[in-house]
Design goal:
CATH architecture of the largest domain: Alpha-beta prism
Bound molecules: shikimate-3-phosphate
Largest sheet: 4 strands, mixed
Strand content: 25-35%
Number of strands: 23
Shape: globular
CATH superfamily of the largest domain: Enolpyruvate transferase domain
CATH topology of the largest domain: UDP-n-acetylglucosamine1-carboxyvinyl-transferase, Chain
Helix content: 25-40%
Structural class: alpha/beta
Number of domains: 2
CATH class of the largest domain: Alpha Beta
Length: about 425
């Protein structure tokens, strides 16, 4: 599919909806299962209707882990994993291709940096542009050894013995934190990571649920090597970052009453809901329960009149993936919104400050790019236009949601990338055509 067209003002977001399983938890379920020498069962790893809709991202992780000796089987939609422990992976015959997935590239670099063989890591054109020095530098301080031009992919991990030690996490990146945690599990000594900006904490929660080798004390994460893992399985809840597109669609379109089921409600992931509520969004969380250490529940959304907001500092890592869709909400809110301290957005699948601003401008939004964010003057309505996904799943889906409220037709070139995190996104959106 080269292009998709969305006819504005023909949608009604009434009814209920499931979204795909959480991508971050899915990656970690696979990585942690790889440390378990016994069998681990992962349920709801893929979109439940069709396991072939496993996103490219997860294929990247499964394929890379299979290449280093982890065994996978799929039975009745569940994935069964037989791992190898923290130090007994085997050398891949070929390059480990992480596709479009920054999480796979960073986490596998951590996992393999303390092994006694060489590994080569690569990815697609977008991933080759994204920085790897954020993991290479701290892993080198731990004793790892790497060869990469420009500190980006392709990257060679050389055989090394990791020492452990005490490290400051200043970036607010869960990928970096998780890479260091996986590295620390194969080190010689204890490692303490001091987190100065909160970021998503699934790796810590999931490991705490299956081993005593990771402890969290305030903002310190203490890891002792050679974990003994006691793990039966993981059940992956729905992805709040995918739900975010339908939540904003529900808020912006008239007469919505939308019920999104089984969403991961981890506080480090749903800060965007807090922000949208502060903007006046009618969003309710119901039917909460705990599944595998994570809070899970349903989200109910009603059409709302939104007001402007300022988003800055420590809240940025907690809603980093939702900023494109929040920018659309700000564009149609009353007043002037500001997003600052968000330079990390320039290092995602596309430069998301530039791509969000350029596409929303095409739709008539009053939005200006700044060095580290954007300034958005809310307007009453937008109009359809021809837009580009920039091969970035979150930009494609943000434009599609904008298209539902725009006057006339919005087209998206290269829309297929939505399946990186949300297979069947456009079909699910179409289910809400009036
Ligand atoms: C992710 C962390 C975030 C996020 C990405 C997934 C993860 O990246 O943008 O989509 O699963 O750890 P950073 O932690 O590097 O900001």
């Amino acid at each position: 599919m080269d292009k998709i067209e969305i006819k504005g003002e023909t949608y009604s977001f009434k009814g209920s909806l499931d979204v795909p399983a959480d991508k971050s938890i899915g990656h970690r379920a696979l990585f942690i299962s790889s440390l378990n020498k016994d069998m681990t069962k992962i349920s709801n790893l893929a979109s439940s209707e069709d396991v072939r809709t496993i996103s490219d991202d997860l294929q990247s992780t499964i394929k890379c882990l299979a290449d280093i000796g982890v065994q996978f089987a799929e039975i009745k939609g569940n994935i069964f994993v037989r791992g190898r422990g923290s130090k007994e992976f085997i050398q891949s015959e070929g390059i480990l291709n992480c596709g479009n997935s920054g999480t796979t590239a960073r986490l596998i670099t951590g996992l393999l940096s303390g092994q006694q063989f060489e590994s080569k890591i690569d990815g697609d054109d977008s991933l080759r542009k994204r920085p790897m020095d954020r993991v290479i530098k701290p892993l080198t301080e731990m004793g790892g050894s790497f060869s990469a031009s420009d500190n980006s992919l392709p990257l060679t991990i050389l055989p090394s013995v990791l020492k452990g030690g005490r490290f400051d996490l200043n970036l607010g990146s869960a990928q970096v934190k998780s890479a260091l945690i996986f590295a620390a599990l194969s080190a010689e000594e204890e490692t303490t990571l001091v987190e100065h900006k909160r970021s998503r904490n699934h790796t810590e929660l999931m490991l705490q649920g299956c081993t005593d080798n990771l402890k969290v004390n305030g903002n310190e994460i203490i890891i002792t090597p050679n974990p003994s893992i006691n793990l039966e399985g993981f059940e992956v809840p729905g992805d709040p970052s995918s739900a975010a597109f339908f939540i904003v669609a529900g808020l912006l379109n008239k007469d919505s009453e939308l019920h999104i089921k089984n969403i991961c409600l981890n506080q480090t992931r749903i800060h965007f809901i807090t922000i949208l509520k502060e903007m006046g969004g009618q969003i309710e969380i119901v039917d909460t329960k705990k599944i595998g250490g994570e809070e899970v529940g349903d989200v109910v959304i009603k059409s709302s009149h939104l007001k402007s907001i300022k988003i800055e500092k420590d809240s940025i890592p907690l809603l980093i993936d939702e900023i494109p869709i929040i920018s659309l909400a700000c564009s149609l809110a009353e007043g002037k919104s500001e997003i600052i301290d968000a330079e990390e957005l320039r290092l995602k699948e596309s430069d998301r400050i530039q791509t969000t601003v350029s596409e929303l401008k095409k739709l008539g939004c009053n939005i200006q790019e700044t060095k580290d964010g954007m300034i958005i003057e809310g307007i009453e309505g937008i109009k359809g236009a021809e837009c580009e996904s920039h091969n970035d799943h979150r930009i494609a889906m943000m434009i599609a949601v904008a298209g539902t409220v725009a006057k006339g037709t919005t087209s998206i070139n290269n829309p297929e990338c939505a399946s990186i995190s949300f297979p069947n996104f456009y079909d699910k959106l179409n289910n809400f055509r009036k």
